[in-house]
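Hello,

I think I submitted the pyridoxal-5'-phosphate job twice by accident. Can you confirm which output corresponds to this input? Input:
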Amino acid sequence: MLHVSTRGEAPALGFSDALLTGLARDGGLYMPQAWPSLTADTIKGFAGTSYADVAKAVLGPLVDGDIPATDLHRMIDEAYASFRHEAVCPLTQLGDNLFVLELFHGPTLAFKDVAMQLLGRLMDHVLKTRGARATIVGATSGDTGSAAVEAFKGLDQVDIFILYPHGRVSDVQRRQMTTVASPNVHALAVEGTFDDCQNMVKAMFNHARFRDELQLSGVNSINWARVAAQAVYYFTAAVSLGSPYRPVSFSVPTGNFGDILAGWVAKRMGLPIDRLMIGTNANDILARTLHAGSYEIRGVEPTTSPSMDIQISSNFERLLFEAYGRDGEAIRRLMASLNQSRSFMIEAAPLARIREEFSAEAVNEANVADEMARTYRASGYVLDPHSAVGTRAGRGLLKDRPEVPVVALSTAHPAKFPDAVERATGIRPALPPHMGDLMERKESFTVLPNDQASVERFIRERARAVKGVAA
Ligand SMILES: Cc1ncc(COP(=O)(O)O)c(C=O)c1O
Ligand SMILES: N[C@@H](CCOP(=O)(O)O)C(=O)O
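Support: Only one job matched these inputs. Its output is below.
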């Protein structure tokens, strides 16, 4: 299976090459050339099967033999053995037809672990097989960075540089990135927003000389393998609720659009999903876009769900590519308009296609707090603020179609955001025992200005992949 770029001008690549490449050379994002389809019988057979076995069945046709099945299966088994819950991503009922899919039982307590635990193993495997090295650069609003540091720490083939917005992530998130004493891990606190960090990472990929010198690779959801691995839990959740014979909707707290896109991929592969609800916090660019058809960047507002404080929602480009009938030239036009005027208009036909499958709702800060408080009062269940965006938006879906079960994705453990949770519920959630001493561990990070050249200079000086290459 080849993978094509959303901007239509980069070479098509197999799975392993797309995995190492990250951002396509034309600035676009890789997608499989065609969607493999799982039959209703295959999906039905997932009932009662382990998470790892469902992952093998879903990812097998996407990897399509590019990594030998025995290696892929071993890595999947190892990745999901690192989770603290036997079901890996368990489902809990919160109310009539409202369910919570807990995605935070991995090592860093956020949904990013589900893909990252596998991605780390896949990249290490492909690099070792090729005798190659990589310099990973990533942007984070808190969770991708922690999960990536955990998955890549100590690997010989890789140096990892994580850019996060200085002062805009929670203490737990920051400490998960800054207290890992491993020589290949570098936490960079950039004086800017998450969008600045993400723009810088993309600019590094678009800087051909830097990219080639350092053998850059990416672990953000620009990396197709991240999205592919996240599609698996849509299958496990829907099957527990009666799929493929019963449609299920999903409500997803959304920022960079990777997680909800994974649901859309599951649907393309044959899972009968009814609606996909985009839940945003007060940074509501996607909700505005779905309602008005115009994608307009405004300033980022800090909220209690900082991991979703995003305006430039990277993976939306993948959905636009499909909605525009895989027309790379149309996507280049939209992205050029975004660069020039910080906005673009979606034409009527592609917008209608998007609205056929997606709904969107913005949840303001008062309602996030109310959702955490009301859920705790009604059921004793403690949500983190990101997950509260998901359940609140999910309740909106149920009002329209109460007969269709709604699964709200719970993307982080409440202990990652203890202050907001305590303010809303009076409960201060404790970190699990393996992280009990996190607040006492010694931190190490570098503060850098919001400036491309300074960040590139820092990375070039520290990366081992560049050693021996003429500057
Ligand atoms: C806890 C949490 N919830 C939700 C999101 C939003 O997910 P996505 O960026 O895939 O839309 C993020 C960040 O990615 C996150 O860290
Ligand atoms: N919320 C994310 C932002 C980056 O998203 P990604 O899925 O593209 O890696 C984070 O926690 O860093």
